Amino acid sequence: MNKVYPLPLSPTYVRHWGVVEAVRELIQNAIDSDAEFEYALLDDAVVLRSRGVTLDASTLVLGNTTKAEDADKIGSFGEGYKIALLVLTRLGRQTVVVNGSVTWTPEFRESEVFGSTLLHIVEATRENPGSDLEFRISGLSQVEMDAITYSCLLMQPPMDDAMAVPQGRILPSKPGRLYVGGLFVCETELEFGYDIHPRLIRLERDRQTVSDWDLKSITRDMWIATGQHDRVAEMIARECPDTAYVQYGGATDLVKEACYRHFMAKHPGGIVARTHAEMEAMVAKGLTKVIVAGGSYYAAVSAAPSYARHAAQVVKVLTPHQELTEFFDHYGKRMPRLPKVAMKRMIERSQNWKVA
Q: Can you give the pTM of this predicted structure?
């Protein structure tokens, strides 16, 4: 007699998922297993195989997972393959799990306990027991087959232009596409595509969204890790989103110097300003070539050691009295609430101030 495992999953759970999302979960499980990833594409079917691996019945319990504390694994919620089986069954795709000495077949049945239709896993003993795990999904259209292979880099031809860095790979051939551990996650506003190591980025529960801060911090570090400093400087200068967060850290002195060289090539002898107000203040001091730059570009250029030496030669050093006088002359009429009497007294006292 076959054994039946009822799972408390309604047929409508994750109703926004389709075939591709479901199969991607099964691919993720295969990649995360200790076995080498194997697959076969047949006329209307996908077969995923993990040799020497089987699933214990306890893994059918929602939340049960061995991957929660493993940073090198993509999945961690203990839901993936159960939800995948539910979605494929709901969409009418025939799915069989060959699990060592048994087969598991998902189907919807009425639950007497809950009085509702739930997912059930029907277990049958195999005539020829094995020691491997296979997921066999059939009834797929060619469009679905193409989308499945496109969702997994391991199912695609190698990319000659991919750039390997410690955090993963930069994928110029996949503009805007984000992969984690070889699996597609989502489209992004980024200029390049990326395949990021799972230990570096946490996916949201639906596996299709990721923190913008985390993503752009990692892509910044990935580009810096390429060692292509002049290229990175050009990207920062044109405010490429892939390097937008360089102002918040990660930039090496080599990157800062490359940004300085880029700035000087465009604006020989120039001085960089963060805002138009800062530019006006510098012009008021007699500087004639002040350029307003974006946040990341400004941060990199102004922090370059060579820029500090250049600025020291160009910007005249003022005494506190001169600084306050110029500030008052420049902003006094623009700031009606400025305490002018108190300001003038401070300017008088500043004649005796000395810079330590």
A: 0.78
* Residue pLDDT, tens place only, 201-225: 877 655 667 889 999 999 999 999 9
Instruction: Determine the Cα–Cα distance for residues 87 and 93; give it in Å rounded to an integer.
Output: 9
List the one residue out of 241, 175, 247 whose CA is nearest residue 255: 247
Q: Tell me phi and psi for residue 5, to 5 degrees.
A: -110, 110
- CA 158 – CA 155 distance, rounded (Å): 9
In angstroms, the Cα distances linking 278 to 29, 154, 176, 178 are 55, 51, 35, 38
With tokens 């639906």, the residue in question is: 206
Number of Cβ within 10 Å of residue 6's Cβ equals: 15
Beta strands in 15-127 (DSSP E): 38-41, 45-50, 94-99, 102-111, 116-125
Q: Which two tokens stand for residue 204?
A: 């949201």
Locate all alpha helices (DSSP H) within the chain, ordered by sequence.
19-32, 80-90, 142-150, 212-225, 229-237, 253-266, 276-284, 295-302, 305-314, 320-331, 340-349
Domain positions in the chain are 3-154, 163-226, 234-314, 320-352
Which of 181, 152, 167, 294 has its CA nearest to residue 219? 167
The token duo for 69 is: 């504390």
